[in-house]
Structure formats: C-alpha cells, structure tokens
Amino acid sequence: MTDPQRKLSAAELTEAGLTGWHLTGEALTATFKTRKFSTGLELVNRIGASAEEANHHPDLTLTYPQVSVTL
Predict the structure, then answer these.
(1) What EC number(s) does this enzyme carry (predicted)?
(2) What is the predicted pLDDT for the residue at 4?
(3) FRET label pair with 64: which of 27, 34, 39, 40, CA 20 to 30 Å apart?
(4) Cβ–Cβ under 8 Å, residues 35 and 3
C-alpha cells in the first residue's frame, strides 16, 4: 500500500501521464491555456465541482487566457 502523503518525483509525474504538471516546492502546479475567458471559467467550474466531490480543494487562478491550478 502506498503512503498518500508521499511526494511524487518528476519521473513519477511523467510516468503517470501528468504532462504539464510541475513540482513547485511542495505543491503540484499546472497552467492550462484556454484561449478564451469563457472557456477558462468553464474549466474552473468543472474543477470546482470535482473538488467538492473529492473534498480536496486546489487553488485556482483564472486569468485571460489561462487557468493555473495548485495542489
């Protein structure tokens, strides 16, 4: 059984198919280019709904034309 608090290595991120995600200090971060503000807003809403279901809430930053996520 794996430890849920164990930190992933950069190699494990790549192996898991989490391209675009980076280790920044103790956080995982990713930036998604959305091209349009409305598309970014839709992405934030979808992430928010999933976060509520999982009871795990990332930091989200919506700017034109991208969304940044920090876990």
Answers:
(1) 4.2.1.96
(2) 59
(3) 27
(4) no
DSSP codes joined into one string, the chain: ---TTPPPPHHHHHHTT-TT-EEETTEEEEEEE-SSHHHHHHHHHHHHHHHHHHT---EEEEETTEEEEE-
Q: Architecture of 20-70 per CATH? A: 2-Layer Sandwich (3.30)
Mean pLDDT of 57-69: 97
Q: How far apart are CA 66 and CA 11, in angstroms?
A: 26
Q: What is the pLDDT of residue 17?
A: 86
| 66-70, strands of its sheet edge to edge | 22-24, 27-33, 66-70, 59-63
- Every domain of the chain and the residues it spans: 20-70
**Amino acid making up residue 24:** T
